[in-house]
Amino acid sequence: MAALDSKQYIIAYLNNQPFGIDIKYIDNIIVLQSITRVPKAQSYFKGVINLRGEIVPVMSLRNRLELPEVEYTPKARIIIVRPELQSAPVGIIVDEVKEVITLESSAIEKMNYDESDIKGSFSIGVGKYGSELINLLNIPVVIVDKEVVS
Amino acid sequence: MDVSQYLEIFIEEAKEHLQNLNEHLLVLEREPENENTINEIFRAAHSLKGMSGTMGYKRMQHLTHDMENVFSEIRNGKMKVSSNLVDVLFKGLDALEAYLTNIQTEANEGEDDNEDIITALNDILNAGLGIVSEQGSGASAAVQAAEIKPVAAEAKSDHGKMKFLDVKIEEHEKKAMVKAGTVGLNVVGLTVYIQEYCVLKGARAFMVNRALEEFGEIIKLNPSAQDLEDEKYDFEYSAFMITKETPDKLAKLAANVSEVKEVVADYYKLSEDDVVAFSKQINQEEVKAVQVQASEAVSLKSGSVAAAAKQPVKPVANRSVRVDIEKLDVLMNLVSELIIAKNGLVSISDSNDTTLDNSFHEQIEYLERVTTNLHESVMKTRMVPIESVVNRFPRMIRDLSKKLDKEMELYMTGEETELDRTVIDEIGDPLMHLLRNAADHGLESNAERAKKGKNPVGSIYLDAYQDGNNVVIEVRDDGAGINTERIKLKAIEKGKISEEQAARMTDKDIIDILFQPSFSTAETVTDVSGRGVGLDVVKTKIEALGGEIEAKTKLDEGSNFIIRLPLTLAIIQALMVIIGDEKYALPLGSIQTVEDILSTEVKDIQGKEVINLRGNVVPIVRLSKILGCKKPEKEPEELLVVIVKKGERLAGMVVDELIGQQEIVIKSIGKYIKNHKIISGATILGNGEVALILDVNSLV
Fold first, then answer.
1. Cα gap A139→A124, rounded to integer Å
2. CATH dotted code for B385-566
3. Residue B405's pLDDT is what?
4. Which residue among A16, B201, B512, B518 sits deepest, i.e. has the most Cβ atoms within 10 Å of its Cβ?
5. What are phi and psi of B64, to 5 degrees?
6. What is the pLDDT of residues B60-71, one digit of tens each?
């Protein structure tokens, strides 16, 4: 029964803050590897990587969420996500990946945000896990730059 | 019966038959007497009728049936081919094509009965037959009346079983019989009775006929060979043979085939009148020309029995397998992976590692050869001759010629040139646009041409050929050419350029205006073209395929549109270079040369950097600036310049270092990342790194 009203999230850290990503989006988590810069791309796209023969664009989540950029440590990971089931994969660089947690829907607080604020729309809510508050990311909005795709 | 599983095959084959009919009808219009063509048409129409009937498409079957009737009368020489007739037949083909499209999209043939076409066909049929019977009313009608009687009288003894005596013999068959008599051969009539319990009547008849054919030529079957094959007969049929053997021997021979009940045979004699009439005719023909005789024999053969004609004319069957294009895509992807893996091994073997011995290097080289060949073969499986696209154009030009009331001819070469299947699917519309343009705007009216001292009949050429890694398709006409002055005026009028700009523009720049959206110089908009949506659409489409288009024109001599398309879309040869500290791939196809240029030789002309390359002024492009790469500490004394060519134009790309030539697999970098048009994709290098592919053409 728990499966019906609970979801699993992967907890990633950025700037020592926890962020939750619904595991249904996640394909894979890999260690940082060499990234080929793509000239003229959006600043938050670091470039492209070779993921077992596939070219995958990689973005810095710090940059996308307008957090300060830092040197990546060996703990840094690339989370490979697919914003939709059949869509091409995209990599998201985070400082660290900690654990997988299960949240009951009752533990998720929907947030009201200003529609015009893009950063606000990146979040689908806040999850309460023990004493921690976890920002749950709205992956499709984070990945898809409306201007570019349309 | 559930026929859905055959639907795909039906559609494919029906398309082939329709194309076949289109092509042969065009030939027939030009050579109304060509018997091979008529036979081919008849056969295609017949198969189409059978197929659509089997699949339960009644309307399609009905229309094909009526068309087949007309073909059949033409084949029997009872009707003449007229332009009017061909028009109606083409309309019929279009209607059949419409049915087929409907079947393809909605799985049913639709509601249109095309009554008007069927009526027109029947009218022609009735009118045509009426004329012929009037013409023939003189001598031959009398012959027809007296046809059977004298023979019947002779063979009265066994007339009951000799059913072949009741069979009506056609004119050309009589001629063949008389001819056989002149060279000392017998004409034998047979009636074959098959056992009533026989299950496969069609096959039995076939076996009997085959046995008989060893001893002569069957010139007529009643019912026809096709009907026999389809078992459309009751347990007896008649055959007429030209042979050296006696009737008794043939009867015995045929009776030897199992499940044959009885065979009766006798010499078949034509009436005296017929013999005299046809011998005279034959003699006349022999006097006319000796070599005609040979072809006459052939045509007699093909005209007599469908079965006899079928074997020699039918082309050797293609040994082929239909493969889903998606499966080929998967195969191509796997080959790409293999090439990446091979590149990885190559880069290890190049790394001067002393622990690797010679045999390792040998094996790597072997692997390299094999993968290159494998890639080529897989690519070839995806290649289709452009014939499948261009073969509908002669028909289109014919229709246009009538519609525009201009006489014109289309000459095509290089139909066998092959292109990737995905390109083939897309290239049809642009080519059609260009041909329509040539027919409508390019060619002058016949009177105007005559006035200019040109051949009144306009010519349009479609030439395809392979040029290095490209396939070139040229659409050329010998018409009026493009009036650049008029384009200038029009462009100024439409506010696209200013007058000062116009004054400075070269002819080439002006022609390029034609490719801009909504620009048409045609004074009147016609059905065919002139709405100004043509050339820019053509250009976009061709560029989407990775190709390019340019136009050349000379006033009063004609215009030439040249399309260049890449041979393959997936794997190319590239020159790997280093710019800043990054690796990039430049497609080898557009590279002319690589030059060392002293930095002092770079001149600044109106803010543009140019070099003088063997007398040509070539603009140079600092790739590192455009790509935002790291700058070297100080300007080097010598620049490495890769000279690329786009059409007639040259440009020099400054790079920092050359790595070498490599076979690369083109991969997309996806839709999420904002993509400058200079980056056409990415590729994976041997060491697993990603390098971007630069579309240098976009910078020229």
1. 9
2. 3.30.565.10
3. 87
4. B201
5. -60, -35
6. 888 888 888 888
List residues in chain A touching B: CB distance below 8 A.
34, 36-42, 45, 47-50, 53-57, 88, 90, 143-145, 148-149
> Do the chains contact at A36 and B682, CB–CB below 8 Å?
yes
**Tokens encoding A129:** 């896990």
Domain ranges of chain B: 4-135, 139-311, 325-382, 385-566, 571-699
Total of domains in chain A: 1
C-alpha of A58 from chain center: 11
Cα A113 to Cα B462: distance, rounded to the nearest angstrom: 62
ipTM above 0.90, yes or no: no
Cα–Cα dist B414/B387, whole Å:
8
Q: Token pair for residue B417?
A: 């040139």
B571-699 adopts what CATH topology? Answer: OB fold (Dihydrolipoamide Acetyltransferase, E2P) (2.40.50)
Put simply, whether B259 touches A (Cβ < 8 Å) is no
pLDDT of residue A91: 93
Instruction: Please report whether residue A150 resides in a domain.
Output: no
> Tokens in use for B21?
């009919």
pLDDT in tens, A17-75: 899 999 999 988 999 888 999 988 888 899 999 887 788 999 999 988 888 888 888 88
Using CB atoms within 10 A of its CB, is residue A50 exposed (0-12), middle (13-18) or buried (19+)?
buried
The answer to whether the CB of B173 falls within 8 A of the CB of B240 is: yes
Give the integer Cα–Cα distance in Å for A59 and A42. 9
Chain B CB contacts of A41 below 8 Å: 673-676
Class of domain B4-135: mainly alpha
Alpha-carbon span B581 to B603, nearest angstrom = 26
Tokens of B441: 């705007």
Q: Residue B567 and residue B646: Cα distance in Å, rounded? A: 16
Q: Which two tokens stand for residue B300?
A: 């007699």
Q: Please name which of B195, B233, B238, B194 lies closest in space to residue B218, comparing C-alpha atoms.
A: B238
Q: Which residues of B touch A25 (CB under 8 A)?
A: none
Q: Which CATH topology does B325-382 take?
A: Helix Hairpins (1.10.287)
pLDDT the model gives residue B554: 85
**Which phi and psi angles does B136 have, rounded to 5°?**
-85, 5
pTM assigned to the model? 0.49
**CATH number of the domain that residue A118 is part of:** 2.40.50.180
By the 8 A CB rule, do B599 and B606 touch? no
Provide the residue range defining the domain that includes A47.
2-145
Exposure of A77 in the CB half-sphere (CA atoms within 13 A)? 17
CA distance A31 to chain B (A): 15
- Does residue A120 form part of some domain? yes
Q: Which of A48, A88, A144 sits opposite B690 (nearest CB)?
A: A48
DSSP symbols for B126-169: HHHHHHHHHHTTTHHHHHHHTSSHHHHHHTGGGTTT-GGGGSPP
Cβ neighbours for A65, distance < 8 A, ≥ 6 positions apart: A14, A119, A122
CB count within 10 Å of CB B613 equals 18
Q: Residue B18: in which H helix or E strand, if any?
A: helix B7-30
| Cα B381 → chain centroid | 18
Below-50 pLDDT ranges, chain B: 131-158, 292-293, 296-297, 299-315, 524-533
Q: Which of B480, B689, B494, B680 is nearest to B587 (CA)?
A: B680
Distance, CA of B440 to CA of B442 (rounded, Å):
6
Cβ–Cβ below 8 Å for B690 and A49: yes
Residue A10 placed within a domain: yes
Q: Which residues contact B141 (CB under 8 A, 6 or more apart)?
A: B133
Give a three-class secondary structure readout of A27-42. EEEEECCCCECCCCCC
pLDDT score of B569: 60
Q: How far apart are the first and last CA of chain A?
A: 40
Provide the pLDDT for residue B377.
85
Q: In Å, how far from its chain's centre is CA B302?
A: 26
